[in-house]
Design brief:
Chains A, B: Keywords: DNA-binding, Transcription, Transcription regulation. Chains A, B: It holds the Pfam family HTH_20. Chains A, B: It comes from Alloyangia pacifica. Chains A, B: GO terms for molecular function: DNA binding; DNA-binding transcription factor activity. Chains A, B: This is Transcriptional regulator, ArsR family. The structure is a homodimer of 112-residue chains. The first copy, chain A, has 112 residues and is an alpha+beta fold. The first copy, chain A, folds into 2 domains: 73 residues, Arc Repressor Mutant, subunit A; 36 residues, no CATH class. Helix content of chain A is 54%, strand content 12%. Chain A has 6 helices and 3 strands, in the order ααβααββαα. In chain A, strands 1-3-2 form a 3-stranded antiparallel beta sheet. In chain A, a hairpin with a 2-residue loop joins strand 2 and strand 3. In chain A, helix 1 runs antiparallel to helix 4. The model of chain A has no long low-confidence stretch (mean pLDDT 92). Chains A and B meet through helix 1, helix 2, helix 5 and helix 6 of A and helix 1, helix 2, helix 5 and helix 6 of B. Chain B binds a DNA duplex (30 and 30 nucleotides) through helix 4.
DNA sequence: TCGTCATTTCGGGCATTGACGAAATATGAA
DNA sequence: TTCATATTTCGTCAATGCCCGAAATGACGA
């Protein structure tokens, strides 16, 4: 992961509606939710939400697939994993044990 | 974690310099690095960097402790952990197995 | 093909954020 | 106390992000 990609992802999540969208999709799981249903559930205007979904998609956080007339949005769990790894890369100069459980758990310490 | 706290954290990380600062501190570990040294290493103006450090601190991502004349900044690993948990909360409606390894690993699925 | 539903694109207007230098504050040493 | 180092605060400027309605596009069924 490049720094710019990480910034795109963090920027995408740094917004009330977009964060709510992503968390909604996470709760729903890989099956996906149609755009208009997301708008309905979050009480957002379809045009505004469409822009937010585009941002999330450009950041790689969600993926979109068409099912008939609808477009289903689903979360991309791998992108979260990559983001955390990037954030904690080379944690504590390689001594991951010094940083608590998450870094080693996420595999973000120095690779042996 | 509240949604607003998560947004503060994501906003803080959604910036080239601030993200570089945080990753630098992660690499350095819990010992901490003085503000001016961070500025020197990242080639940033001290006044500009001071603002960025304040943003990171307000977001709970770093902590500051004074050592003599200097102020040492260190990463707050717990905040990253909380952020990931918040992001993946109730993943896949509780069926964490459906989402890949990270959610269950991070303890972000539905609590049994 | 035609109409309809689902979604996206576009343009305008408002608010927020970021960079920088100069000056202010805080700490330790002589 | 007085000086020097370390860091923060402040004011100004430019740039970016966001919301919304109206219109355009895409896909399906009659």
């Amino acid at each position: 992961m490049k720094q710019d990609d990480a910034i795109d992802a963090f920027s995408a999540l740094a917004h009330e509606t977009r964060l709510a969208v992503f968390r909604l999709l996470v709760r729903e799981g890989p099956g996906g939710v149609p755009a208009l249903e997301i708008a309905r559930r979050l009480d957002a205007k379809p045009s505004t939400l469409s822009g937010h979904l585009a941002v999330l998609k450009r950041a790689g956080l969600v993926s979109a697939t068409r099912r008939q007339k609808e477009i289903l949005y689903a979360p991309n769990f791998g992108s979260v994993d990559a983001l955390v790894r990037f954030l904690l890369e080379d944690c504590c100069g390689g001594d991951a044990a010094a940083c608590g459980s998450l870094p080693s758990i996420a595999g973000a310490g120095a690779e042996p």
